[in-house]
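Consortium newsletter contribution from the modelling node. Members have asked for a concrete example of what our holo predictions look like. Here is one, prepared for the manganese (II) ion complex that several groups have been discussing at recent meetings.
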Amino acid sequence: MTELKTTPLTPNFGVEVSGLALADFVPSGRFEELRALFDEHSALLFRRQDFDDAAHLELARAFGPIEDRKADEREEGEEFVIPQVTNVTADSSLAGDIGMHQLHLESNFLWHSDSTFIMPPALTNILTARVVTTEGGATELASTRAAWAAMPSDLRERIEGRGIWHHYSVSRAKISPELAKHPMFHKWPATHLKSVWINPANGREALYLASHAYKVDGFDDAQSVALLDELIEYCTQPEFVYSHTWDVGDVLVWDQRAVMHRGTPWPQEQPRTLSSICVSVTESDGLNDIQLPT
Ligand code: OGA
Ligand code: MN
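And here is the predicted structure:
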C-alpha cells in the first residue's frame, strides 16, 4: 500500500492530498487514513476529482451521520437532497424569495463554523465545486487551533473556561434584520457550548466560535460581542488562513471543531454552485464534552 502524498496548504494547517481518486479510495477500505489526516491537519484538499453525488454521500457517511436540517419538513418516502450553495437556483427554505436568498448567501461571507446552533453541531463540511466563477468566490478557512496555540495570554484568559451561546438568527441579523426574522432561523433553540474544543483523537485544543455566537458567560451583551469580535479578528489573521480558489471537481473537507470558514463575494452575474454535505459530530468526536447546560 502506498503512502498518501500530502503537501501543506499553509505552514500552520491543512494539506493537499494528491495522486488519488477520492471516489475509489473510500470503497477500497482506506478511509481511516483520511480520517487520521483530518484529525491531524484540520483541512484536506483534493483537486479536480471525478466526484459525483454518490461518491460525495459515501465519503460523508464514512465520517459519520449526515446532517439533514430538513428532516422534519420532508414527506415520508422523500429522499435527502444534497444541499447546494448556489446563486443559480434558490435551494433553501427561502426559495422563491430571491432577495432573501441572496442575503442568506451573503451570511456565508461572515467567518463561521457550520451548525454551532444545532445539537449535534457539524464535524465537517465536505464541499465540492460544480460551477465556478472566473473571479472571486473563494472559500477561506481559518485555523482556530493554530490561533489558540499562538494567542497572547491576556486575550486567551478572557475566554478560557467560559461557555458561549449560539443562535442561527444572530448571524443573519448581522446581514439584515428582515432576514433574521425568517422562521428558518428560529427552528432551533440557543445552544450553550464550551469555548474550547478538545479533539479526543489527539488532545489538541481549538477555540470554537462562529458568527452565530452572541453571548459569553460572565460578560454582558456588549462585552460579549466585543470579545467575540476580537477573538474572530485574532483567529483570522493571514498566518492562520488558507484561501481556496475553486476548480470544478475540487473537494475541500475541514474540521469544524478547529476551523472557521467563509465565502468571498463574486460578480453577481456569474453562476456559482458548490455541493455541501455536513456530517454531525458524535460522542467519539467530543460531543458530550462540549455541551453545557441550557
Ligand atoms: C458553507 C459555506 C462558503 C462558500 O457551505 O457552509 O459557508 O464559499 N460556504 O460558499
Ligand atoms: Mn458554512
